[in-house]
Amino acid sequence: MVPPDTRPDPVPARTRAIDGRRPVRGETEAPRHDGDSRRPLGESFLAHFLRAPALVGGVVPSSRVLARTLSRHAAGFDAIVELGAGAGSVTRWLAGDHPRARLTVIERDASMTRRLQRLWPRARICAACVHERPDALLMQPASAVAVSSLPFRSLPDDLSRATAAVIERFLLADPARRLVQYSYGLREPFEFGDARLRWRRAERVWRNVPPAIVWVAGARNRGEFR
User: Fold this and answer.
1) Are the beta carbons of 105 and 85 closer than 8 angstroms?
2) 215 near 189, Cβ under 8 Å?
């Protein structure tokens, strides 16, 4: 049996209220936003999926438990780059858990990027595919982590290879850098072309539909990476 999730909720009250539930005592209401930012997150994500199912990879956004797990593995870095943010189900935890880290978000869908910019105005939002904006990854400080929700197994081959190539350059630029990625299958999210890079299976998240595996990637020459 999977133990219940007892970790305290680290997200600021104004961010939690965006979920659409009524705030409990002591919380404040989330500020209202214009346009599609007031739609339920699931509704926005479904529209996102219907526009480009192969590029989204799922009909529902990541669960809260999965998003929190991804965020936990991003702790301790000076900069965070989120790849494929969608409607922001992971973004809200990255922003709330790591307020001192410089946050960059890459999302190809224009309506989603407008929503993300309204909700997290302090983040740098890039409206493009990852391979179209390699600078968003490569110009980060040495202590940087990329947190990815990209569905590599369903992406077109040319897009998957181009994206993976940018990620490899990002990781090889400094041994302190990491990639945090989840998958729904037992296989590694994608294969690295450079033998200096490797995947580590970090943990399984059962409370997600479907259950997911969180992976962490980095350079082999980093002694503590195992």
Assistant:
1) yes
2) yes
pLDDT over threshold 90, residue 25:
no
d(CA 121, CA 140): 19
Burial class (CB in 10 A: 0-12, 13-18, 19+), 35: exposed
Q: In degrees to the nearest 10, what's the CA dihedral of 215, 55, 108, 99?
A: -30
**Beta-carbon contacts of residue 3 (< 8 Å; ≥ 6 apart):** none
Distance (Å, whole) CA 48 – CA 44 = 6
Q: Is the dihedral of CA 112, 113, 119, 124 positive or negative?
A: positive
- pLDDT mean over 172-190: 95
| 115 within 8 A of 125, measured Cβ to Cβ | no
* Stretch 78-82: mean pLDDT: 98
Regarding pTM above 0.85, the answer is: no
Question: What is the 3 state secondary structure string of the chain?
Answer: CCCCCCCCCCCCHHHHHHHCCCCCCCCCCCCCCCHHHHCCHHHHHHHHHHHCHHHHCCCCCCCHHHHHHHHHCCCCCCEEEEECCCCCCCHHHHHHHCCCCEEEEEECCHHHHHHHHHHCCCCEEEECCHHHCCHHHHCCCCCEEEEECCCCCCCCHHHHHHHHHHHHHHHHCCCCCEEEEEECCCCCCCCCCCCCEEEEEEEEECCCCCCEEEEEEEECCCCCCC
